[in-house]
Design a protein that fits this description.
132 residues, alpha+beta, Alpha-Beta Plaits, 7 helices, binds adenosine-3',5'-cyclic-monophosphate
Length: 132
């Protein structure tokens, strides 16, 4: 069993898609082990995305991430990290495979509805960021 972190982003909470996303995750065999709603501050959003410091999209990303509540979730499954990345699809919904969450509901490369940890190291850090 492995654990990973998913965040439902403000574009999805705004469209009442929390239940839809949780349903899709549970249907794919993920167990929700921790979940809550949070209004991120600019400081917390910048800290979470510190790895993207210096990228041209960072300021806009931070504004978007504080524009409404987010729902971080700790999820458990076998091969949770890679399976979840596969289920959510590519960052840009235009490139996301058919049947993925982003292909179905994301608006664009920034307002892409969900975030998922991309490695065991980041999963550990990101779970701690929200739940420890
Ligand atoms: P996420 O998987 O949360 O990781 C970084 C986020 O930055 C990404 O999803 C998008 O919401 C946002 N973003 C905006 N533009 C880009 C871009 N050109 N490349 C990567 N991420 C981007």
């Amino acid at each position: 069993m492995e654990r990973t972190l998913l965040i439902i982003k403000p574009d999805a909470t705004e469209r009442n898609l929390i239940g839809h996303i949780v349903y899709r995750l549970e249907r794919a065999g993920f167990r929700v082990v921790n979940m809550r709603m949070e209004q991120l501050t600019e400081v917390r959003a910048r800290e979470f995305y510190a790895v993207h410091e210096g990228k041209p999209f960072l300021d806009s990303l931070v504004s978007f991430m504080v524009s409404g509540p987010v729902v971080p979730m700790e999820l458990e499954r076998e091969n949770a990290i890679s399976s979840l990345r596969e289920l959510i699809g590519a960052t840009n919904p235009k490139d996301a495979a058919c049947g993925t969450i982003r292909q179905e509901i994301a608006r664009d490369i920034e307002k892409n509805s969900v975030h998922a940890s991309d490695s065991p190291e980041n999963a550990k850090k990101e779970i701690a960021f929200f739940f420890e």
